[in-house]
Amino acid sequence: MTEAGQVLDIPFADAFAFDPSPTWAAIRESDRPVVRVRTLTGSHVWLATRYDHVRLILSDPRFSRAAVVADGAPRAGVSRPLSNTLPTTDPPEHTRLRRLVSGVFAPRRVEALRPAIRELAGRLADDVAAAGQGADLRQLFALPLPIQVICSMLGVPYADREAFREWTELAYSMEVSERARVESAMGSLVGYMTDLVVRKRIAYRRGAHGSVAVAGAATKASHDADAVTARGGDTDAVTNTVTNAVTDTDAVADADTGVVGNTATDGVAADDTVAATGTVTTAVAGTDTVGTAVADTDAVESAVAGGIRDSAHDHAEDTGGDLLDELCRTALTDDELVAFALNLLVAGHETSANQITSFVATLLRDPALWDRLVRDPGLLPSAVEELMRVTRLSDVGQLRIAKQDVELGGVTVRAGEGVMASIGAANRDPRVFPDPDTVRLDRAPNPHLALGVGIHFCLGAQLARIELGEALSVLINRFPRLRPARPIEDLAWRRVLVSGLAELPVLP
Ligand code: HEM
């Protein structure tokens, strides 16, 4: 469909709408299904659209994820991905990191969270009912559900959600004109997580008997991160600075508390950029011990969330803590811990929140689908898989860098070149999925790639399936006659890397 040698801009001009751009299918069905595209930061990369090619790119070790964070590497979005996370490492680093968390996210362990997630979904459905006609299902239901779950599992205060949501939205923006704000938001996210990690690591070393002075030291870390961000430094600079602060703090915490107090106070007084991150600073200053910090959530984090935390960590009775507490005890460096935790926080809510919204929107767009699920809830497991297949999370693709020359769909991807695997396009490949644009709630088999494949297969796959299944189950029971308050096609789509509807007003 493209002229030989023509380079398309990605995201395509008609991206960020409910239906995928027709360009995806046109490339996939052409005789040149792997094409050159230019990302919004000007990187030239290959784009793969067919199922077999996408599957290969995601799972073949000749394609690297670690290389996407190298200097000068092509980029899919505006922000630079954080190093040292699961999605940005190759073996053996990836294997080491994944082993640290695979137990907590193992299907059997996660299954134990189901009752608490169901109860939480029920409470959030109450909020939707209370809001009445026009209630925004995304704000009231789809966002708080996974945020509360991942906050509880990780040990991130739910009370901080407004702040980290705002930063996440900006940090992964696909508006290239927003570059300065994007970098600043990424710096804020890193600073926020550093505060948390500092407090937890110090508490671990002190046996959870922190002091105001210790909390002050954490504020110093936040201050340093903010100062770097305010100077327009890039994410790596921020990470390095906060990491140094973490390391310094660790060292001082082992020494004399008074010294820590002075250092922290000087640091805070010297620069009022700290005030710019009110939430972080307040959270730190108001917290004397980690125990308080973890418990310092607002009334919304209820016994339900406590149930999630208890179920997730019943294996760790000796700590009584959460996943972050556990990771603090590992040999992860401070750098790794901050990036790792941030990745889990963002990947753990952004994805499911979008998918819950998109699932409901897809069903309501053709109310016969909603009504069928209401009549036959036994279809829920296959419906979840089918809805994962048809709803896309990204209007670009998963980026990898070729480590050697690879023949792919009639082109040679040269070593060092970037290649994007479009899961959304692959999931509608008619070679694998008959009648791919039709939603069949009972489709079987359904070997979709929505959760990836290979060593980077979604860590939260089972958690996501439970959240999505329980969310739909609660909604069809509570609101059997649910309808959209506005035509689905008219609803705005968020221009971010992990994309989806900006709102979903409904008539409950
Ligand atoms: C419907 C919801 C979700 C979808 C569609 C989804 C999708 C994906 C996909 C496609 C990948 C592979 C990316 C690649 O190979 O480049 C992935 C990886 C990942 N996902 Fe999910 N995800 C979802 C929910 C979650 C949740 C709830 C978590 C919770 C922590 C999570 C954590 C991760 C992590 C950490 C990775 C990286 C794994 C690795 O590189 O080893 N995801 N996800």
UniProtKB/TrEMBL annotation:
Top-level taxon: Bacteria
SUPFAM superfamilies for this protein: Cytochrome P450
GO molecular function: heme binding; iron ion binding; monooxygenase activity; oxidoreductase activity, acting on paired donors, with incorporation or reduction of molecular oxygen
Record Pfam families: p450
InterPro entries named in the record: Cyt_P450, Cyt_P450_B, Cyt_P450_sf
PANTHER family, per the entry: CYTOCHROME P450 YJIB-RELATED, P450, PUTATIVE (EUROFUNG)-RELATED
Family that this chain belongs to: Belongs to the cytochrome P450 family.
Name of the protein in its database record: Cytochrome P450
Species whose genome carries this gene: Saccharothrix violaceirubra
Source taxonomy: Bacteria, Bacillati, Actinomycetota, Actinomycetes, Pseudonocardiales
